[in-house]
Q: What sequence folds into this?
């Protein structure tokens, strides 16, 4: 199976991060909005398209912040065991105030909504990749972080 690229948005406002809310047989889990890059599509275009599809909002795309490998067989709760994906995380901001009345245009099949999650409470949520949150917190605290974070869970 070929390696696939994915582009994701890190959207933070007032100490909260915007995540997609998803559900599986174990309950709720949360992800940064984003998804698979299409043939001939630039990564920033992927982030823009995926944010419209998953959160129903336009975003301003900033710098590339993190790169992560996702090798499905190495992760708990993996429903895509045979997948190898390289994920590119961009710092983004909403172009307009989030309108919860506006619906995503093409949410993922596990997605049931979107939610602002406060960083002080994020450890109470099942967020993937878990270890990326530590890197995001460091980045926003002005601490040095690595860009390539590896095959983290």
A:
């Amino acid at each position: 199976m070929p390696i696939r690229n994915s582009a994701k948005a890190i959207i933070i406002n007032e100490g909260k991060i915007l995540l997609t809310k998803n559900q599986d047989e174990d309950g709720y889990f949360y992800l940064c909005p984003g998804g698979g890059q299409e043939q001939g599509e630039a990564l920033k275009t992927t982030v823009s398209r995926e944010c419209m599809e998953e959160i129903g909002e336009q975003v301003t795309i900033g710098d590339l912040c993190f790169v992560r490998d996702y090798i499905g067989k190495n992760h708990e709760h993996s429903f895509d065991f045979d997948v190898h994906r390289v994920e590119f995380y961009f710092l983004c901001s909403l172009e307009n105030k989030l309108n919860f009345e506006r619906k995503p245009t093409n949410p993922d099949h596990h997605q049931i909504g979107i939610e602002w999650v406060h960083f002080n409470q994020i450890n109470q949520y099942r967020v993937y990749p878990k270890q990326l949150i530590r890197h995001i917190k460091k980045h926003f605290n002005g601490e040095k972080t690595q860009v390539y974070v590896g095959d983290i869970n």
